[in-house]
Specification:
Radius of gyration: 18 Å
Oligomer: single chain
Shape: flat
Strand order of the largest sheet: 1-3-2
Structural class: alpha+beta
Helix content: 40-55%
Largest sheet: 3 strands, antiparallel
Strand content: 15-25%
Number of helices: 6
Order of helices and strands: HHEHHEEEEHEH
Length: about 160
């Protein structure tokens, strides 16, 4: 989603476009993918010295509820990125290196259908994240692709 599209979406939903919200949106728009709250705060504060971290948290929560950003847990922290309306956005997150990789929605179609058919349960898979171990980390830990590495073993 582009900056202007996000502003329009917020406006159509009746949200006030305060200078702080516009600044956070600009930071997100310029920042690329998967920005942590601390990074958004640091960049916003560079532009406006009176920005506080609570405002950034509240603004990102509002943006998430409005469908302007998606939230993904990477390591022990939440990260955000701009998203398009109605866009299904999925991630695979490596628990070792904290790498985040996009996962195409078609991989979850069969999973959704199984849950609906077998359990009558309609899952919310619009923004879905799977944690595990990426191929590089598996290789480094001695486990090949498809084989659990040391970090994958449950004790």
């Amino acid at each position: 989603m582009h900056h202007d599209q996000a502003l329009e979406r917020l406006r159509l939903q009746g949200h006030r476009l305060t200078p702080q919200r516009i600044l956070v949106l600009s930071v997100m728009s310029e920042g690329g993918q998967h920005m942590g709250v601390d990074e958004v705060f640091r960049r916003a504060r560079e532009a406006y010295q009176y920005m506080d971290i609570a405002t950034v948290y509240r603004t990102l929560r509002l943006f998430k509820e409005a469908g302007v950003v998606t939230e993904v847990e990477i390591g022990d922290r939440l990260h955000y990125e701009l998203t398009s309306p109605g866009d299904r956005h999925h991630h695979m997150v490596c628990r070792i290196c904290s790498g985040a990789y996009n996962l195409s929605p078609h991989y979850l179609s069969e999973f959704r259908d199984t849950l609906v058919h077998d359990f009558g349960f309609l899952p919310d898979l619009e923004h879905f994240s799977v944690s595990g171990t990426c191929a590089d980390c598996q290789e480094q830990s001695g486990g090949g692709a498809g084989q659990p590495g040391v970090a994958d073993l449950e004790l």
